[in-house]
Amino acid sequence: MCVDDQLLNTYLDQELKEPWKTQVEEHLSYCNACRLRLSALQEIQNRLASATLNDDEIAPSKERVLTYFEKNRFSGESTKQLFWHKRVQVKLMPAILTSAAAFVVVFIASFVLFSSNPEQRQEILPGVADPIDSTHIRQVSDAPRPSLDSFSLEQIINHLDKLGYAVKLELKAITPLE
Amino acid sequence: MEIQSNDERAFRGVYEEVFPIIMRVAYHVTNNRDLAEEICQEAFIRFFDKGMLFPSSDDAKYWLIRVTKNLAINQVKRKVREQGMVEKLKQMPTSRANTTDGEHVLIREETRAEVQEAISQLPEKFRLVIVMKEYTDMGYREIAEVLRISESNVKVRVHRARKMLESILNRE
Predict the structure, then answer these.
(1) Which residues of A touch B133 (CB under 8 A)?
(2) Predicted TM-score (pTM) of this structure
(3) Pick from B164, B67, B70: which is nearest to B117 by CA?
């Protein structure tokens, strides 16, 4: 009995195991029809194989795709480090941004609150009023009561004149000329 | 030896061995060399970005072939949907033909076109098996593992695919 196509295909693919392989080979040694059929199957396989892309045809694609990875994936250092680095970046970025923002606020506030130089303060934050401190606050009740020293001689004379007094001024040790 | 897919050295080793294999699989399934290159790139991007650990380089290879096969099939289905007919997929990839020997190249391109045409007429399950059998270095057991079917199923499909191809090629 001749060998069927499926068995011949399996034999052709070198996938036929013993003892069937030896039996098929024995049969092929004397059966011309099966040898021809095997040749026909071999011919189909050869035609398919001839349609494949050879290494030279694949090489440009292989090079292009590898270049993509060299540009976009490989870091030149260990890839594990790259991924670790990425994870750290993702987790730290919000914290770093928050810290930076806090630092800026403290830095500016220190100038505003503790700077002794108003010009510098105005330069940094124009429009911000001088801070309230001991030099800018004075209790109203502690203000000195007005005394004669608070007024000029002219003011005093004018005041007395308005009240109807005649004022005559003399300086000590000076006698007016007659 | 274990393979960490996002380790550059391991990646390069796998790439060197597997790229030609998946390029051929993608090309013979889609019948388009540019598309095949894109599919290979996508397969390797997934391979790298997932950062998987494979027990061996063979496991990494099977994974890549499986992904390539799925991407290629999806592309074919998408193209068929978009274009409404299979014929538009069967374009001759002549743009990058090697021109060192004009006549030889022409004959080979004609043969290639005939074979590709015949393969594209096969139902998907036969097409995948015969492409893997003829254009990769894999045996029945490995093909079975990639396609997640039994080895005897692979054997039957190879036989039936060759029978269909014989019929198509001899008719032309």
Answers:
(1) 13
(2) 0.65
(3) B164
